[in-house]
Design goal:
- This protein is mostly helical.
- It is built from 10 helices and no strands.
- Helix 8 packs across helix 9.
- The protein is globular, with a radius of gyration of 19 Å.
Amino acid sequence: MNWNSTGAMAMRIASVGHAVFAATMITLGILGLIKGDFTPTWTGVPKGVPAREVLAYLCAFISLVTGTGLLWQRAAVVASRVLLTYLLVWLLLFRVSHIFFAPTALVTWWACGDTAVMVAGAWVLYAWFAGDQDGQRLSFATGDKGLRIARVFYGLALIPFGVAHFTNLKETVALVPVWLPWHVGWAYFTGCAFIAAGVAVLVGVYARLAAMLSALQLGLFTLLVWVPIVWAGANAFQWSEFVDSWTLTAGAWVVADSYRDMPWLAVGKR
């Protein structure tokens, strides 16, 4: 542990992905407080929910406080636990619940995957930071067991991302940068890549390579697709998609970091 001479809290950075994830949560919190509305991670709340605006500010506050806490040694465990719990509740209340009303709508499954990536990222951080007390009380959620659960969430999330490239082929093709050839081919390739990566993570075959490549793919989407659109003057929907893509990249990066002690081509290890 790193402490300065006055005994103040020192920053605790477990990986680059951890730092990016924490900074992303802080940014989401600031954006939410400025807008007074839900940012992409916290969407899905029906219009008729009581105190909806209060809930939007609460989400922004949770994002800001936990994101800040993730960077500080004494607060990292509590921050990761609070964020994980909040994301799990959100996944159940405002994502999984929609499956009962529109089970065949791909957007429903995409939204579940969207939040599941963030759950996976938060769970990895909690598994890393949890101390002995947490390990005794919540052994299933910490250590290697916690990492396995996080990776399952991530693997399941990638599959609907890939399927969407086929069911929404026209929209996907339209997003391929104009300077790239074979737009349809890229749409099919990236869709297959997401599905293959999700399966690889779930079954533990080349899981580290799959997690890293899927995080890279999300990052490239953000950089090559959404950054130019934002630079050219994005509308509200496009800004939301840019923030969503950036947030997913941060969550995926943390999951990829969780494999850092595993061989790149490990088979049968989860």
